[in-house]
Amino acid sequence: MLYDALIAPFTEFEFMRRALAAVIALSLGAAPIGVFLMLRRMSLVGDAMAHAILPGAAVGFLLSGLNLIAMTVGGLIAGFTVAILAGLVARVTELKEDASLAAFYLFSLALGVTIVSIRGTNIDLLHVLFGNVLALDDQTLLAIAINATVTMVVLALIYRPLVMECVDPLFLRSVSRAGAPAHLAFLALVVINLVNGFHALGTLLAVGLMVLPAGIARFWARDISAMMVIAVLAAIVSGYAGLVLSFFTGVPPGPAIILVTALVYLASLLFGPVSGLLRQMFPARHLEA
Amino acid sequence: MGAQLKFHNVTLGYDRHPAVHHLTGEVAAGALVAVIGPNGAGKSTLFRGLAGILKPLSGSIDLGGLDIRDIAYLPQSVDIDRSFPISVFDFVGTGLWRSIGFFGGMGKPERDKITRALAAVGLNGFESRSIGTLSGGQTQRMLFARVLLQDARLIVLDEPFNAIDTKTSADLLALVKRWHDEGRTVLAALHDMELVRDHFPETLLLARGPVAWGATAEVLTAENLMVALRMCEAFDDSAAACSDDMPSRAA
Fold first, then answer.
1. Which three-class secondary structure state does DSSP give residue B12?
2. CA separation for the pair A10, A248 (Å, rounded)
3. ipTM (interface predicted TM)
4. What average pLDDT does this structure show over B191-199?
5. What residues of chain A lie within 8 A of the CB of B53, using their CB?
């Protein structure tokens, strides 16, 4: 019975196995990135970047139809351009990163919509908007896995300067010039993972597997390494549960996955040991020293 | 000993307005120098120039061949994200950046070094606390532990004893003296004249330009201090471009 509900869908249907593999790969890359976004108070930046990617993907779609490679490259170009321009402007001028990013992503979004409307074709952008994790071909699955691998390797390489730039940016500047390159590499990883996510979850929800697991982890751990592990686990478990939910109810998989993640987030908000609401309402007695 | 630092007619400032104006002089290797002056005199600006965070508007600073990693800079208002989930041990460990860099492993010798540095500043037992739980004085001790691990030839401390109680300042001052004994060059911006008189052999009295620079007893005269106090903190938007190419010498 339990087997039928929880395991049979994956043993019986290949598309479910593929979807699960994709979700696991996405979780491994996106969740640690999300933890850094959260710690750098950039969670909404992920959302803005997702908007910046949309026009690039749309242009790729216009030029070569539903070709995932073209859409990925288009999205990467648009995302990188916006991320790097925003990062540079924030570093060179007085404008802060959020304001400069807002300016560039709006520009990118407007440009993309303009291009689409000038071409005037009746495009089916549903795939880009909402993705479909149940219909991934080999190529896309491989691309997702490669992107996730690249993410983990690069994150490991820039881990120390990235942490130092979060905690004490002035100190990093006084001992090394690695701060700016590490920051740009990090923004690039955000873009890669959003593009990765849009095949499975669509551009609008791609940011979900990034930001929500990080929020969940904050309620369970005080240490950044533990946070990243918990975030990855939360993303994988929610992804799996979302796929099962989608399989039995017919809800589209993207929203199903993000809904489950959001429920886990709400539960963590209530029951999490680190500043969870219940813990705050019923604190344990204070210690002697 | 030779000079560690040479200021060649340096002007440092913001938006073309000078905060340190035409400073020329030398700091000997191994010197222990107090930099004093009223608020807005340019002490912090000078230190930011030394740390390579601010480029001079004109003139140059000769670091005597030091790489930026040979300089430990402790800013006045530390811009630490105290909510970041990192332990005191790991935070202090970033001071080992020079020796372990991006990927170097943290073996037993490194861990021992960190433990010893924490012990030296009196923070034993705080290793696994997250940095947000420390008090102001404890935070300052932690920052000194990081400076200790940086093992730098030049140490620049911007008002290190501000808002710190006597016990903590005494402990940290002992560390400063230890660095001096080890032959490192130490510059510290200070406001406590008594402390400067008692512990710092050399003093630079700054008031945008250098008012006096030399042996502490000769610099800290009532007359010099009056001159420094009269310095106006003017930030004149319509100021003309400075044509004074002659260095104003004080040392």
1. strand
2. 12
3. 0.80
4. 91
5. 170, 173-174
